[in-house]
Amino acid sequence: MSVTESRGRTWLAALTGAEAKAASGKNSVLYADATLGADTARFIAVVPDADSRFPRARTGEVGLEQGWALAKLVRDTIAADTDGARRPIVAVVDVTSQAYGRREEMLGIHLACAAAADAYAEARLAGHPVVALLVGKAMSGAFLAHGYQANRLVALDDTGVLVHAMGKQAAARITRRPVSELDALGDKIPPMSYDIKNYAKLGLLHALIDGVNAGAPAADDVAKVTKVLVEAVADIRSSGRRDLANRLTSPAARQLRAASIEVRRRLAQQWDQTV
Q1: Would you say the C-alpha torsion 218, 145, 82, 243 has a positive or negative sign?
Q2: Rounded to 10 degrees, what is the CA torsion of 28, 34, 40, 46?
Q3: Of 23, 226, 227, 256, whose CB has the highest number of CB atoms within 10 Å?
Q4: Which three-class secondary structure state does DSSP give residue 3?
Q5: Quick one: which H or E segment has residue 76?
Q6: 103-116, pLDDT tens digit by residue?
Q7: CB contact at 8 A, 129 and 84
Q8: Structural contact between residues 69 and 115, judged by C-beta atoms closer than 8 angstroms
Q9: Whole-structure pTM over 0.70, yes or no?
Q10: Are 251 and 203 contacting, i.e. CB atoms less than 8 angstroms apart?
């Protein structure tokens, strides 16, 4: 795979069958509108751009330009639908990392990523069914900026689909443990795991799609994923909810994250008692 190819680009093209447009003139943030069930949805992906003027954001990272471009694109979508039906938004997620760098920190990458996350949240709260489709890496602040605010998260069941706060090598350096030991711990402690199957155990996923060629999808693969996306949009609308409560109420979440849910309940209780 060349430096400009990515699963995000592949799936954006496969799902839309349309020529993608560059958001805000940035070749690293692409979008296309395409039929999804009875809707016309907006599909968005962050992809590598070897010519990016920011070297730390050339291989699929979300950096300054990507964060602001995502924010503007999503907000433009909201504005366009203010007086009509809210179209579904599908975030095609294959983001390698937040773009860590001195210039990025000096120029406020935290603001750029926050703007993108805020725009996705506003779209969700405005009634746009927002679905994140994880086709590759969903790492660190990049995933928070592009995808994590979706009403529903769906993922391909593939070893190349990874969700985590940081890459394995970085985690090994910080914890001073070998990668092999971290992998072994991940098998016992799902939140530490990079395996998408273990991530599913946390109750955060709406659907885990198996039997799909994640790297080179055929027509049957695209049809299978499209069906799941259509069902996710229907589930969002039928729920009548625009928040992220489903991540705490799923059977898997109740089983594996019972303590976390209880902490949230008690915090809410204390808050209600003091205001």
Answers
A1: positive
A2: -20
A3: 23
A4: coil
A5: helix 64-80
A6: 999 999 999 999 99
A7: no
A8: no
A9: yes
A10: yes
